[in-house]
Amino acid sequence: EPLPKGRVLEAWVERDGIVEAVPDLFAPDQAGHASSTIESMKDVSAVMVTREPEGGTKKPTTKPIVEVPIES
Questions:
Q1: Exposed (0-12), middle (13-18) or buried (19+): which is 54, by Cβ within 10 Å?
Q2: How far is CA 49 from CA 2, 6, 44, 69, in A?
Q3: pLDDT digits (tens, 9 = 90+) for 26-47
Q4: Do residues 53 and 7 touch, judged by C-beta distance below 8 A?
Q5: Measured between alpha carbons, how far is residue 19 from residues 3, 42, 70 in Å?
């Protein structure tokens, strides 16, 4: 579904219980596809995507719309 005006998608990784933002904000294209790149998956235990205000945030402000546990 389209993002509300003024919102973007932000990816997050969890390492050792600490959630860190992926330095890349993104939005779906006209076909509804969106992607982001995570530079290093070292020690990542989960990847999440949230809807955030334009410009992003330092911590997630919404419940993840995607949450994928990563098994090592």
A1: exposed
A2: 15, 16, 14, 12
A3: 999 989 899 999 999 999 999 9
A4: yes
A5: 23, 14, 14
Strands across the sheet with 66-69, in order? 18-26, 7-15, 44-53, 66-69
Tell me, yes or no, if the pTM score tops 0.70: yes
Residue 57, burial from CB neighbour count under 10 angstroms (0-12, 13-18, 19+): middle
- List the one residue out of 21, 71, 70, 30 whose CA is nearest residue 50: 21
CA atoms within 13 A on the CB side of 64: 15
Phi then psi for 61, rounded to 5 degrees?
Answer: -110, -5
